[in-house]
């Protein structure tokens, strides 16, 4: 279970509209979000290696297809995203 529990209800997207700043415990909008638009975030921005990967269904132009954490993605892909300090440290950037 995630803490706070509400985080479990925010879905992944390869074109996210929010970022979780896990250092300061704040949610940051990455772009304008329309009223009624679902919040989505890029799971590998905070997850190094997930227990269970999944086939992404975000259908965005830059969809990565299979999501299993930052450890499983090339650096040139990851650097296109805002990443948590934890992931940046794991990558040495």
Concise overview:
The protein is α+β, with helices and mostly antiparallel strands. The protein is built from two helices and six strands, in the order ββββββαα. The protein has a single domain, classed as Beta-clip-like (Beta Complex), CATH 2.170.270.10.
Reconstruct the topology from this structure.
Layout lengths: L10 E2 L5 E4 L4 E4 L10 E2 L12 E2 L10 E2 L7 H4 L6 H7 L2
Radius of gyration: 13 Å
> What is the CATH class name?
Mainly Beta
Helix content: 10-25%
Runs in which pLDDT lies below 50 for 5 or more consecutive residues are: none
The count of helical stretches stands at 2
How many independent structural domains?
1
CATH superfamily: SET domain
Kindly report the average pLDDT value.
92
Using the alpha-carbon principal axes, give the shape. globular
**CATH fold-level topology:** Beta-clip-like
Which structural category do the helix and sheet elements fall into?
alpha+beta
Main beta-sheet strand count, sense and barrel state:
2 strands, parallel
Order of helices and strands: EEEEEEHH
Give the strand content. Answer: 15-25%
């Amino acid at each position: 279970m995630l803490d706070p529990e509400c985080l479990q209800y925010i879905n992944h997207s390869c074109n996210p509209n929010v970022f979780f700043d896990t250092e300061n415990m704040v949610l940051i909008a990455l772009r304008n979000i329309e009223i009624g638009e679902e919040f989505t975030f890029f799971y590998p921005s905070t997850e190094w290696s997930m227990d269970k990967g999944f086939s992404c269904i975000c259908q965005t132009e830059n969809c990565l297809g299979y999501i299993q954490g930052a450890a499983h993605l090339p650096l040139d892909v990851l650097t296109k995203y805002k990443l948590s300090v934890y992931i940046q440290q794991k990558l040495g950037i």
